[in-house]
Amino acid sequence: MTPPASSPAARDVTFYRWEDMPREKVSDMLDRRLITGDRMMLAHVYLKKGCVVPKHSHENEQLTYIIEGALRFWIGEDQKKEVVVSAGEVLHIPSNVPHKAEALEDTLDVDIFSPPREDWLKKTDAYLRR
Question: Cβ–Cβ contacts within 10 Å for residue 81, how many?
Answer without folding.
Answer: 11
